[in-house]
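On clarity, I found the account of how folds are encoded harder to follow than it need be. Since the whole study asks how a given chain folds, the encoding of that fold should be made plain. For the editor and my fellow referees, an illustration may be useful. An entry of this sort, consisting of the sequence and the corresponding backbone structure tokens, reads as follows:

:::
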Amino acid sequence: METSSTAVGYDSRAILIHGQRTLILSGAIHYPRSTPAMWPELMRQSKEAGLNTIETYVFWNLHERERGVFDFSERLDLFRFCALAEHYGLHVILRIGPYICAETNYGGLPAWLRDVPDMAIRTYNQPFMREKERWVRFLVDYIRPLLASNGGPIILAQLENEYENIASRYGTEGQHYLRWVSELGQALNLGIPLVMCVGAAAGAIETMNGFYAHPMLEQHTFQHPDQPAIWTEDWPGWYDTYGYPHHIRTPQDVAYGVARFIAAGGTGVNYYMWHGGTNFGREAMYLQTTSYDFNAPLDEFGQPTTKLRHLAQLHSILTDYADLLLSNERAQPQSLGELQTAYTYANNTYTLTFLCNDAPLPADCSWNEEQVSLPAHSVLLLVNGQLRFNTSDIATVHAARRDYQPQEQLIHERSWTTEPLPSHWPALLRSAVTEEKPREQLALTHDRTDYCWYSTTFSTAEEEEGTLSLIGFADVAHIFIDGKFYATSPTPLIENRGSFEGPAFSQSFRFSLPVGDHELMILSCAMGLIKGDWMIDANMVEERKGLWGHARWNSTVLEGPWSMQPGLVGEQTAFFAAGGTLVDWQLVGAEASQEPLRWWRLTFDRPEAAGPYVVDLAGMQKGIAWLNGRCIGRYWLARATGELDHWHTNIIFAQNTDEPTQRYYHLPNEWLQDKNTLVLFEELGGDPASIAICSVTETPLS
């Protein structure tokens, strides 16, 4: 690749690469959400489907889990990921952030920022800006050889992300911070343009996010007449949260959105996500499922879908006529009806016409003295008057469905051991803190574990049915009284919970207790940190887990003292890895199934069927899973009883309502061995006899 300080630029119509206007067809693939063995095939299929660019966020929260200790190994090998993209002829858009949102834990920020004195996140705050600048400069030194200005594949970079979502919260201090971000961006001397979506700092190309971007074009052109129209996040689906249905968006609607945007003058599209992948470990944000499939064109396991094949047809036409599109100014709309419009791009050889119907119903229009039927919410692409593509028409050969095929007789041993209650912990592992009032969980765990025990005693004067209330609590509570499991938090939980004083941070449990003294033990289970301020109506540094308020039995406040024990015995001694060899695992018996606080170990052979592979956990309830010592993520078989967001109406549709939000969990090929060990920490109790290893296929419907 030619080395030039002006390798990438832009004008009002397009991104310029080596002086040439370039139509950007990009897909988001997040390197930590897949494994390095998957990357080449993801790149190959992306290129084959007509993309010319890959976009990724940079995950500061994963690269620097402990301050000053950096990790760029295995699936965090960003340099290798970008170099592979270049090998497959793909540019890279690098969204540095370091705040990235992304449905990742703490929006991509390391949790240890909470422990920095006087910290306030994403506003004009010296401790935050000092840590951000330190990381960004370190990262830029790492990736500098990959910049297009140095002959590498990275053509655009982003600092910050969607600041407009919180700008009103921080007012002038927020704008002061944005100016500082702009100054930092210029000081980095990247030699490539900066972009920023939804609320850009000065000096950056402002880009768009949404299900559709064509309605934003007029305002964008008015506010930024010197900038091209770039759609950084075209959402081809939506993410899933536990307790809510799987979100899907039709291939036809995604293709309509892209074609409609290009017709009206857009010249850069990035699908967010193109391949969503998996939230391994504890890397998902609050309530986000371990699957980050996103109903994306390449599914969670990297397999092509109906959506990918349909979009590939569109990309082929757009690429064939990219020079025609970009050598012209934005086409002027020609009205064909109330919500029907034509856009035409022409030269001496070709005419490319987009016939657009924005209405939710079909429409008959006149075009070139002929009657044309436009399907609802569609775009027809005509070349020299001949129909080349209809966004609403999926070719039969492109339709496919996903199937899960259980692999029989792979699992040959199931065994278990108990996770003890805090009163039965080995003395050497106890690190309980005792105080008069309960202390917020993250102050104790620093987000190194999801779990923290809260224990106290109280008395009942008579046998009664009553209500245990936790006022000021997050996220999931399992209630034990006198060593016996009594209750767990009701679902679904709410993603955006509002004020800490509001009802979303209180939970109640009703049950009967005999007369006498009782020991209350609460296993608090964090479900990931928030991704943004709006989820708690406070600065992100205020994020809380566990019990920080008080507990009541009926109207009586439980005064304490409270004992707080972070973590689990099985975590501290690594039951899921080398520590498992020291455990007295017991073979499965009827007495073990459906009991809470169980560690399960299953051994199985490598499947012989073609991958990818998943584990079907339909018989279990809630916990964390490890494959050969690697954490594959949280699991929760919470039923999808929640409703879709109202602003998704007629765009996103619910699938698998009243079934578990996520039943199948990815077992990466790269992590499998000839003999495998799957370990589950089951919080509530399940039947491991129903667990199965499955292969996954995309089966053609034709």
